[in-house]
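hey so u asked for the seq, here:
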Amino acid sequence: MPRGGGKVEFTVWAPEATSVAVRTDDRDHDLGPGDDGLFSAQVDAQIGGHYLLVLDGKRVWPDPCSRSQPEGIRGPSQIVDSSAFRWTEHEWPGLRREELVIYELHVGAFSPSGTFEGVAERLHDLRELGVTAIELMPIATFPGRRNWGYDGVYTFAPHAVYGGPERFARLVDVAHRAGLGVVLDVVYNHIGPGSEAVAAFGRYFTDREPTFWGEALDYRRRWVREWAIQNAEMWVRDYHVDGLRLDAVHAIYDDGDPHVLAELAERVRAINPRVLVISEIEAGDERPIREWGHDAQWADEFHHTLHVLLTGEQDGYYADYGRSVSDLGRQLERRPADSLVICSQNHDQVGNRAFGDRPRPEELRIRAAALLFAPQIPLLFMGEEYGEQRPFQFFTDHIDPVIAEATRQGRKQEFEHFASFAGADVPDPQSPETFARSKLDPTAGDEEVRAFYRRLLALRGHLPPEVMVIPDEQARVLRVRRGEVELVLNFSEREREGVPPLGAHLANVVVE
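ran it, structure tokens below
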């Protein structure tokens, strides 16, 4: 942390090291040992300067809590002074959960430049559409140049390819001035390939509860808890983000009291009482909103029910969902509605298909109507508002050839249980073409679809929270009523009640 006068204070947790030094300009500065495995000192260093940490006089690594990695995960760390970020969003009131409409996007695939600046260029259009917050897939520094972001290694360092720390702060500032909040996707259930650089400093991991992605983080240890909680605090304090979306919290194991994720929520709210904490968790588990004090959680059951109704697919995790319109009605009636985030598309439900294919064009209106008429919090996935048909595929750029090949093989094996993809030649996640295919193409969008989304989003603010559903299983029609407005969803292949196949109709619509 910069202290002025050309001094920077470094504090490192390295409980098994006998000595720790900071290397700047080929000069080593020793850090003094303290309690609980901490080493610290103020040393001569410049803002923007590069440095490395030296353990026991011989092992040299980047800082596990680096604020910037301009040369990637194997390069030196860079000193950042977040107090120097310039902010102009002084009138920003913060997000209102009752008005929340989230737009999920991947920075690299969202614009031709694949940068924070590329996102900023389209913010006005999203606000005009009716979106109230953008949600960025993880931006922490990961191996290589392209990745979904869930392989982050340096969780405190905004990815340099996207623009680094200052330009991320600039994006948040521009978003607030445009009337949009910023929710950031963060990952505290594992660390991506290259995690040995973090583990070199201390026992961050445990093999007691392995995750799908590798070793779990050991939140029994105080400074591992602080690694996650202080990271969350940094995004809220230094970058002014309005919310955190916590990835796959069912893979975060902690038997402490309070639970690490309950403590995290409490501490970020101490910085900004209006910040939102939203968790992704397995279907049927409501610990985030029932026990940990989180504001909301993802409710994938809505997506799965809607998807099976429209496609008939019941492979893999869709096997537990039937083709009943009553099932969808029950999802619309779930409470508390303002604590459940639902979607028709998101990065998982598109990108984790073998080919990353989007819904069929003929489904777009009924999907949009079911989602945006629901009383729960809607999440749009980038491009769905104009009917994007380019895929969103799984892409990586692992710099370790062993990890790269394991990722290729793992991707193929993942779809062996899906009959619709059996024997398919799954796109190579390491290929640059896979990433290129996933870039949005707004110029090919359907303006009628965009207008339909805009109309539905304008209507949402005029609807009461109460909902009444009337299913007709024989006709495969679901009627949904909120106040004086009625929505008819026709899931059949025939016209019903004047509504075309796979169509939707709104009656008694008045928008002032």
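The chain is about 25% helix and 20% strand. The chain has three domains: 2-61, 97-460, 468-507.
lmk if thats what u needed
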